[in-house]
Structures are given as structure tokens and as C-alpha cells.
Amino acid sequence: MSRYFSLADMPDMTGKTVVVTGATMGLGYHSARVFASHGARVLVHGRTAEKAGKAVEQLQAETGSEELVAVHGDLSSLDSVKKLANAISKATKRIDVLMLNAGVAGLDFELSQDGIEMHMAVNYVAHFYLFKKLEHTLKVSKARVVSVSSGAAASTCHAGGVPLSLEAWNNKAEYNELRSYGDSKLANILFTKYVAEHYGSAGIVATVVDPGVVWTALNARAAGSSMFSMFLRNVAWFFSSKPEEAVLTQIFASVSPRVENGTSWQLVCLPWDVRGKTQGEGAALLWKMTEKVLREKGFA
Ligand SMILES: NC(=O)c1ccc[n+]([C@@H]2O[C@H](COP(=O)([O-])OP(=O)(O)OC[C@H]3O[C@@H](n4cnc5c(N)ncnc54)[C@H](OP(=O)(O)O)[C@@H]3O)[C@@H](O)[C@H]2O)c1
Questions:
Q1: CATH for 15
Q2: Is 20 inside any structural domain?
Q3: What was the pLDDT predicted at 2?
Q4: What is the domain range of residue 136?
Q5: pTM exceeding 0.85
Q6: Residue nearest to atom 8 of ligand 1 (CA)
Q7: Does 51 map to a domain?
Q8: Centroid of ligand 1 to alpha carbon of 28 (angstroms)
Q9: pLDDT digits (tens, 9 = 90+) for 142-184
């Protein structure tokens, strides 16, 4: 088996069903395009019906696939995530790959509709809740759950790891957008660790990737006033790869037989060492805390 991975290694995905969040642009859109052009049925998630529908039209035109389904939901609203999960469950009884890709970065302090700091709400809590709502389908499908994290998970999060209280996430006085983004992306890794440990016996394979620095709207839309946002808006392009190339890491994680439960990847198919951030009880404590937040918000 080749140590490298390219589109030439893509298996035929006819008969497989894939869900991609944030598939209207950037890495999500390019993921959906690769899956669709290799025969998969793809549930293309967008924030609104209009955005998801437009992406489906564009993907149809580019791939010729008739197996594209638009689903929508605003990930900054748990009620909307619940409706999204219901729509996905209606559209398919099987999910072979759940790609948790949608994300925001570089935002000034803002709370979601449910009162959760926006990076944590969209990048982590919404995906956690979506996973929980789809848990049964994922188990019966023995699905692969691919979380799209970031190098920021290791470099910019709180020194002690993701804080374990909503008050700390929402602490406006000490807010730092780079740190909140890093925390949300570390939460993606800890989520993967927990899913791997607790759902692996049910056949779910959880994996997490760092796509590297990629020139997408994520950078251009970083609206915050910090150096981090200024870097994303103005300088990141210089170091960035193109999304159609960078997408290979999350595609590899979705389909390669080399990907085992609980593994992490970067630079397409190189192991990403996240052990320094995943020792101890952090994953279990964060999982419990997130369940508590969901219960308190009325979304158990
Ligand atoms: N680009 C990079 O350098 C880089 C580096 C490391 C990790 N990543 C990660 O890669 C993933 C994809 O990022 P990208 O660079 O492809 O970004 P992107 O081009 O900005 O795409 C982000 C996607 O997420 C969706 N999204 C954002 N907020 C949403 C919400 N509230 N509800 C529903 N959908 C929402 C966007 O839809 P709308 O158009 O409706 O906003 C869009 O489809 C993210 O998780 C990001 O953290 C990116």
C-alpha cells in the first residue's frame, strides 16, 4: 500500500452516503465535490436552504452527480442543529462518513443564539450535538466521523486546555479570539478521543485532521481586531495552500483503510501527534461538561 495518498487512490464510493457540514465553500465544498465525483451520495450542508441549494446546483454542474441532497441549519443555534439532524435522519438511514467541517475563526466577542461564545458554539458544540442526534444512524452504519480541527488546537488554546465551564468560555473581559478558536479546535480533538474510546466498540471510527493553512473565506472573513485576524485577512494567503489541494487530508481521513479509530492526521496522510494535548481526563470532563450545557439549554 502506498505511503502517500492522492485522488488516484480514491475508492469508488457508489452506495456510500456522506454528510459534510459547511459544504457551501472552502474545504467543505471541495470535500463534497471529491465524494460526489467518486459516486457517493452527498448530503451538502449549508447555513440556509438557499446556500445549500446553490452549492448543490454548482456541484451538480461540476460533477454531473444526481446524488446530491441539500440540508441546512445555522450551527450557531442549537434548535437549528436539531432540525438539521432531523432533516438528515429523514433523508438517509445510513451515514458512512460524517465530516464535521464547518467553522468560523477570528471573530470579535459574540454569543450564539444559545448564549455560547461563537467559536465554541459553531466549531464544537453544534458538531457535538449533531453527533449525539445522529448517534443511532452512525452506530448502525459503523460510520467514520471526521473532525476538521487545526494546528491552532495545539498552539493557541488555553495553557491548561479547554476550560471546563461556560462562564470561562464566555468571559468577555479576558476574551482573545485566537485562544477561543484554539480552544474550539482542541475541543474537536478531545471530542474525537472520547468518541474513539466510547463508540469504537459500536463500530464508529473517529478521526481528526489539521488541514494546514489554507486560503479560504475563513481567512478573508476573520473580522476581529486582533493581530491574529489581521494576519488571517492580510498575510495568511502568502503561506497558504489551495483548498482543492489541502482537502486531501480530510478526504484521506474519510476513506483510507490506513485510518484507525482515534488517529489524527496532517499534510494529507502523516500522523499528527496530538498526545501532548490529550493526556489525562480532559476529554471525558469536557464531554460531561458539554452534555450539561446542552441539558441546561434544553437540548438534552
Ligand atoms: N482555512 C484554513 O487555513 C484552516 C486551517 C485550519 C483549520 N481549518 C478548518 O477547516 C474547516 C473549514 O474551513 P474553511 O477554511 O473551508 O472555511 P470557509 O471557506 O469559511 O468555510 C466554512 C464553512 O462553514 C460554514 N459555516 C460557518 N458558520 C456557520 C454557521 N453558523 N452555520 C452553518 N454553517 C456555517 C460556512 O458557511 P457560511 O458561508 O454560511 O458562513 C462555510 O460553508 C473549519 O473547521 C476550519 O476551522 C481551516
A1: 3.40.50.720
A2: yes
A3: 56
A4: 7-214+240-296
A5: yes
A6: 150
A7: yes
A8: 7
A9: 999 999 999 999 888 888 999 999 999 999 999 999 999 999 9
Sign of CA dihedral 19, 244, 147, 50: negative
CB 56 within 8 A of CB 69: yes
How far apart (Å, rounded) are the C-alpha atoms in residues 103 and 30? 15
Q: What is the number of domains present in the chain?
A: 1
Residue 167 CA, ligand 1 centroid: distance in Å: 25
Active-site residue flag, 181: yes
Atom 25 of ligand 1: nearest residue by CA position: 22
Q: Is residue 220 part of a domain?
A: no
| Residue of 216, 237, 241, 267 to test ligand 1 pocket, by largest number of atoms within 8 Å of CB | 216
Crossing angle, helix 126-133 and helix 78-91, to 10 degrees? 40
**Cell numbers standing for residue 39:** 459516486
Taking only the tens place, the pLDDT of each residue in 57-109 is 999 999 999 999 999 999 999 999 999 999 999 999 999 999 999 999 989 99
Q: Whose CA is closest to atom 2 on ligand 1?
A: 214
